[in-house]
Amino acid sequence: MVFVGVHDAWGRIDVTRPDLGCDQDRASIHKTKPPAPLTCYECGWQLHLVHKTHAAYDLWFLRHANKAPHCATKTDGEGLQHHLLKLDLAHHARAAGWTAEYEVPAADGAWRADVLATSPDGARRVALEAQMASISVADITARTARYRADGIEVCWFTDRKTIPWLGDVPAAQIARPEDDGPVQVTAGPARFVPEWCEDRGSCGGCQCESCAGGVDGPLPCGGHGTWQTVDPFPLDRFVRAICTDATRPHQLRTEEDEEQWRWITRRYFELEEEQVQAQARREQAVDRLLARHRRQATDARDHQAAIEALLQRQKALTRPAVEYIYQHMGRYPRVAEHGTPEFAMGVPVYLGDAPCAVICPVAGRIPAVRERLAGLILFAATERERDRIIANAQPGQRIEVLEARQDAEPPSPPDQGITIKAAVHRMLGLDRM
C-alpha cells in the first residue's frame, strides 16, 4: 500500500488528497485505459490507483503492478494499521492548518518521514512517524538524531503494548477502540502534580539519607510533586497540540523519572521548574549544614588537640616548676592535680595554702581572672606561649619560660627521714598513682 507516486506529466502525486496535491482529480487516473502513467518513486515500477473502504476509512492508495521487483515501499511497514495511522496523522495535521506529505525523503537520504507536517509559515517541520514494527532503542535514537540534525522535530507513534524506547525519544502510544471510535493517545503525554509541605521552610515529607543528606536539623521543602500519565484522549487533539505548540517534548528533571521524554504543556513545565529550584535550594541548605558540621568537627578536633597539647605542656613543666620554686624560695611547693578555671585553666602551684605560681595558663582565659593572677609567677613552655600570655596578663606580670625536663629531679629537700625521690613523688602526688 503506497500513497505517493510519480506521474509522467504532473510529477509527485498524493492519492490521499482529492486534488492529488497537484490540482488534478482521482477519476483521471482511476481504472483508466490505457493505465495512467504512474510509477513508484522508489523502484520506478508501474502503479495503479485502488479504492477501498475499511470501517470508517475511505481508502485511496497505489498498488504495484504485477511482477514488481523488490521495493522498500512494498516491504517496509506494509501493515494496514500502519497505513491507517499515517492517514490519521496527515489528516489531523492538515485539519490543524498545516500541510502534510507522505514518504518525504531527505536530500541526502539520511531519513524518510512517514508524514512530514509543515507549518503555514514554513518555520516548523515535524516528522510524524508511525512505528508499528519492533525497533531497538539504539536505532530509534539514531534516527531521531538525524531528524534533529536537519532541524526537524519528530514524534514517534506506535500501538505496540511493550515500548522499551518510549522514554528515550519523543513518542506516544496509541490505541484503536474496538468500536471503531477515534484513535486514542494512551501514553507519552504527562502532567505534573505538585505537592508541598505545609511549612515549606521545614520539610517533613522525607527524612531518608539521600534526601536529608545525612544532616540533622530542619531543611526547606524541595517539593514532593510527581509526573503522572495523562488519561487517554483523542489523537486529533494531540496532533493539533503539537502543531499549535501547545505541547512540547521535554526531558523530565525530577529524580524518579529524570531524563525521560514526555509531552507536556507550559504550565506543567513551570510547576516542575518550581520544584527543581526548590530542590536546588534544599541541596544548598544541606551543603551549608554539612560544611558547618565539618567545621564544628574540625574545631572540636582542634580544640581537643589544643587541650591535649596543654596537658602535655603542663605535665612537662611540673618538675621544672617545682625546681624553680625550690631554688628561688627554698621550699618545696605543692602542685595541683590539674588546671582550673580560677587560674585560666593553668595548674596552680602552692606554698602552704597560698598560690605562688601557675603552670601554662590559657592566654585567652587570663583577662577574666587577671586580678586573681596578679602577683603570681606564670610559667610558659615556649617564647611564643609567653608572648600570648603577656598580651593578656597584667602589665609587669612575672612570666618565666621553663625548659621541659620530665626526668629532672629537684634539689634535695631538708632531711625529713625519707629519700629525695620519695619526697619528690609525695610532693607531686606520684606515690598515689
Question: Could you characterize what this model shows?
Answer:
By secondary structure, the chain is of the alpha+beta class. It is built from nine helices and 21 strands.
What's the layout of helices and strands?
Elements: E1 4-7, E2 11-14, E3 38-39, E4 47-54, E5 57-64, H1 72-75, H2 80-95, E6 99-105, E7 112-118, E8 125-130, H3 137-149, E9 153-158, E10 171-175, E11 184-187, E12 190-193, H4 209-212, E13 226-229, E14 233-234, H5 235-243, E15 248-251, E16 261-264, H6 266-329, E17 334-335, E18 347-351, E19 354-359, H7 370-373, E20 377-380, H8 383-390, E21 399-401, H9 420-428
Parallel strand pairs: 8-9, 9-10, 19-20, 20-21
Antiparallel strand pairs: 1-2, 1-3, 4-5, 6-7, 7-8, 10-11, 11-14, 12-13, 15-16, 17-18, 18-19
Helix pairs in contact: 2-5
Radius of gyration: 45 Å
Strand portion: 15-25%
Main β-sheet: number of strands, strand sense, barrel status?
A: 7 strands, mixed
The strand order across the widest sheet is: 6-7-8-9-10-11-14
* Distance linking N and C termini: 104 Å
Summing up helix and strand content along with how strands pair, one would put the structural category as alpha+beta
Mean pLDDT: 86
Helix count from the secondary structure assignment: 9
Order of SSEs: EEEEEHHEEEHEEEEHEEHEEHEEEHEHEH
Low-confidence stretches: 408-418
Number of strands: 21
State the share of residues found in helices, binned by percent.
25-40%
Shape estimate: rod-shaped
Short overview:
With 433 residues, the chain is α+β, with helices and mostly antiparallel strands. The protein has 9 helices and 21 strands. Helix 2 crosses helix 5.
